[in-house]
Structure formats: structure tokens, C-alpha cells
Amino acid sequence: MEFEAKLDADYIDQAWATKSVGTKLVKSHDWAYSLDQIKSTFLNDWIMLVYRDNSASFAWWKEAGGWAIKYPSYLAYQNDTIMAREIAWQNTAIRTFAERQGLLWTNFNSSWIKEHFDMDVKVERTWPDIFVTILK
Q: Which of 47, 61, 37 is nearest to 132 (CA)?
């Protein structure tokens, strides 16, 4: 999140010191508002979505440090009420995009990784209230 959520391949590539070939993971809460643009701009790229309901997301953020988190800074959200509203807006944007694309939600686990990435990875811990989906 050290870079603005700007849909420009050259700008996004600045996050890496070397221009290597391969898979790059670009993540930000702010992408929730640009999912349609991401899909149309990066036609060959996959979009992975992660969803956790509003109250659980807010509670996890607080447990992780909330306003005391130094990086990234959440100060722009000003207070708990605005932060909770932002989480709800982002979750709505994510769910709406997934519904329009006909995507199915499931839990993140070793089977999901095998199905989508053909890799055998042992997931040490899963959360029953966190769901993922992917648009290929």
C-alpha cells in the first residue's frame, strides 16, 4: 500500500526493484472500487478477491492494532465510524463484482490452491469466515 491504487502497468511495476518475469501479487483495499476497470485494463491477469463480513473485518483490524498500526497509515479514515463504513463499502463493491462475474466463494485452503494454481501447498491455518474467489 505504499503506492496509490493507480491503474497503470508502468506505475504498478515501480513496486519491484527488478523487472522480472512471472507472477506478481498487487493488493490493496482500494482496488475494491476499480474491479471493473482492472478487469478491462489487465485482460490476461487474474483477480483474486478476499471477503470477510463487515463486523469480523473491523474486529480483526482492531485486534491487529487498529489506529496504532504504523504502516500502512489508516489516519485518513479519522475514526471507528468512518472506518466501519469504509469496510462496508469495500465489501459491497467486492461482493457486487463477484456476483456480476458469477464467481463462487469458498474457504482458502490447500485444496483451493491446488485447484487454481496446481500447487501442493500446506495451509497451516484456515479461517471459516474468510472466503476467496478468483477471476481468471
A: 47
